[in-house]
Amino acid sequence: MHRFLSLFTNLYPVWLLSAALVSLVHPATFQWFTGAWITWAIGIIMLGMGFTLTVEDFKRLARAPGALALGFVAHYTIMPLTGWLLGRLLGLEPGMAVGLILVASCPSGTASNVVCFLAKADVALAVSVTLTSTLFAFVTTPLWCRVLAGHVVPVDAMGLCLSTLKAVVAPVLIGVFCNWKFPRFVTKAARFGPFISVVSIVLITAGIVAQNAAAVLSNFGKLALGAFLLHALGFILGYGVARVLGYPPLTARTISIEVGMQNGGMAAMLAKKNFPTEPLAAVPAVFSGVIQNVLGSLIAAWCRRNPVSQTAFAAAPLPKP
Fold it and tell me: Which range of residues forms the domain containing residue 233?
């Protein structure tokens, strides 16, 4: 069973691409997966993430404040601004431009932690950046959307805030609480977490593609290019900023991955729930989900072939003045 679950999870990009293609060719297959289904799926993914976290992970936040702060700030500046700039440069129509900004304004997801593990990066730092970016997403994501997209379409910042709290932050905290109070049960349940997360994200992607199949096909080139540039620049700029500030290569690799990877499923859910008049706002999340995982897998493979010396998370330096 363990080998099957591991193999299924490792083939995540394959399932994602396959489901997206089926949705394009025969939309009716997945058109039923929308609305509340997407919200519940995100909640389950976030609960699974909470199951993997312990109180020790929270204590770890204080051990390297410089590296953690850099990862958080870099993620929530490089990506939103890059998403906004690409939307303008590519001339995306309002709905898709808002969708790209929304993707870029979301926290990093559990996939970034998996990529950091495969890349032999600093997993403890990766988990901490993901945790903090997720817990504060109810403020940062609505704020960036309001600032960068408020002039394009009406942005209900409070609605985004409440949606993020209910569907993202609350499940994570519930998962952490369960892991603290019922560790034996959570240990057994957590084995199926990656499998369930993969199935959930694949269904979310397929549902969104099915609902917007014609728009995906007609805007394929621009959206694919936009998603590719968004994540590629995130990886490159995240690494570059960390190195310029004097962090070692291992820390820089970790921050690069945490900056370059977004919670596409969360972006899709928020778009469907908070931008009902802009149905295309959820479409960029589909391209983001596929492209970031392909790029992340390639980066992880390169990092494994070109390892750097391990540097303890606690010893990560503060940025140079």
Answer: 31-301
Q: How many domains does the structure of the chain reveal?
A: 1
CATH number at residue 232: 1.20.1530.20
pTM here? 0.78
Q: What residues have CB less than 8 Å from 306, skipping those under 6 apart?
A: none
Per the domain annotation, does 3 fall within a domain? Answer: no
Q: Is residue 318 part of a domain?
A: no
pLDDT digits (tens, 9 = 90+) for 21-64: 898 889 899 888 877 887 788 788 778 877 877 777 667 667 76
- The pLDDT tens digits of the residues spanning 275-296 come to 877 777 888 887 887 788 788 8
Q: Cα(253)–Cα(240) distance, rounded to whole angstroms?
A: 9
Asked if residues 66 and 318 have their Cβ atoms less than 8 Å apart, the reply is yes
Asked if residue 149 belongs to a domain, the reply is yes
- Residue 115 falls within a domain, yes or no? yes
- Tokens representing 176? 């952490």
